[in-house]
Amino acid sequence: MCSGILQERDKALNQFHDSSDDRVVCLALATDDHYTLPTAVTIKSVLTHLHPSYRLEAAILADRVSATNRRLLEDTLSDERVSLQWIDLPTDLGLASYPMSSPLNKEHSPTVWADLYLGDLLPASWRRVIYMDSDMLALGDLSQLFQSDLGGNMVGAVQDDPVPIVSAEFGIRPWRQLGFAAEDPYFNSGILMVDLLKWRAKEVVAAAGSYLARFGDVLTQYDQEVLNVVCHGDWSPLEKKWNVTGWWNYPERRVGPYSDIHDEVMVFHFAGKTKPWKASSPTSPFVEGYRATAQMTAWKRWQISEPTRPSV
Ligand SMILES: [Mn+2]
């Protein structure tokens, strides 16, 4: 009985595969020169866990990355299952030029805004893409995410933990003026599953520019906030396992449906200030996994140079 069901399921999966001419996952990340190593680690982790029948096409939206770091990233990812393309960010990204007087908006790299330009910069032949931050470690097969049903929406994303709704502190301050409901959900933008056909049809950059022109002075969360405005009512919630942050490091939060969340992680997101490539980062199994992946890169001098603090 059970095996019959499994055979049916396998048949359905094979039909899906047979009907798609190419088993490819399209992935995009953005980096400046300083983030090239973390970007390489994230892509390496994706490749390591990708289903063996899939290839990876990775686009790197690059802000002035040096020739040396490009070569090191390419050497790290020299694998017949991956093809890389560098896409240089224009030096005059319009969204990076808005005056943002909010004290929360410190000096930041233009790469912060690169995700808003996915529709403009990625190859026209790409119909879907997974966008990832460069502070993430894949622990599972992203071909499953790439096949997600977005229910006709433009984007799939994971609801944020510290900011679950638009009216939360550090959510969307002008939610009333925008006509949103207080309880409307708010997502973390560290990983996005994007329907590029819908994205390109929506003129995302223009919508983002209008928001920044009106409310740039009360912005609290950079591109994440703007994406939540632009994608409002047009995103599907993805399962938490696709974007598990350090918010879950506190055992008292891992209760009820989330009691096993750490066993289910498909992508761990080192959101916040403590990054695993900094020696000052508290250790955890995810940090150890990250550092093991970093050892597989071509950066021979990858090391933790400061003394590590014990985990708290
Ligand atoms: Mn992040």
Structure explained in plain terms:
With 312 residues, the chain is of the alpha/beta class. The protein has a single domain, classed as Alpha-Beta Complex (Spore Coat Polysaccharide Biosynthesis Protein SpsA, Chain A). The chain contains ten helices and ten strands. The chain has helices at 2-19, 36-49, 67-76, 118-121, 142-146, 196-202, 204-215, 222-230, 261-264, 285-294, and strands at residues 24-32, 55-63, 82-88, 128-132, 136-138, 155-159, 187-195, 235-237, 244-245, 267-269. The strands form two sheets. It has a seven-stranded mixed beta sheet with strand order 3-2-1-4-7-6-8, with helices on both faces. Strands 5-10-9 form a three-stranded mixed beta sheet. α2 runs parallel beside α3 (67-76) and α7 crosses α8 (222-230). It starts with a helix and ends in an 18-residue tail after the last helix. The structure holds manganese (II) ion.
